Amino acid sequence: MEGGAYGAGKAGGAFDPYALVRQPHTILRVVSWLFSIVVFGSIVNEGYLNSASEGEEFCIYNRNPNACSYGVAVGVLAFLTCLLYLALDVYFPQISSVKDRKKAVLSDIGVSAFWAFLWFVGFCYLANQWQVSKPKDNPLNEGTDAARAAIAFSFFSIFTWRSRVTSAP
């Protein structure tokens, strides 16, 4: 790719999907996208348990519905944000204005830092709620692997979003 403003080739060049897929920030976006699917998918599928005595479902994280809601919300919104910025990556070489490219890069850096923070908060929140969960709430250990997976991938997401701050286009 020829040198250009803010890490892209000259504007108006032909779209090269191979070059796009090989860029580190695109790879990190796809990994972040997959991690967000794991987090919200784990919580949605196995993060809620049914209580036979109460007849109502509850969140596996210390019976705290806010913990499950936070994990799902951050996961879904991160999923959508990744799709938005993947679309921007595809469109980025077509942006001819240096000012617009600068805005795109700075927004990517700012949004990535913001998401790294949200994932850090989510990891701390889910890990804390998991730690204080009572074994009597889940005697059969249903959904424990999914709960741990959501916590682990929340932790991994901190680094995939943080790394994008330093590898913006």
TrEMBL record:
The lineage of its organism: Eukaryota, Metazoa, Chordata, Craniata, Vertebrata. It is found in: Membrane. The chain crosses the membrane at residues 30-49, 69-92, 104-126. Keywords: Membrane, Transmembrane, Transmembrane helix. This is SYNGR1 isoform 5. The gene is SYNGR1. Residues 20-169 form the MARVEL domain. Belongs to the synaptogyrin family. PANTHER family: SYNAPTOGYRIN, SYNAPTOGYRIN-1.
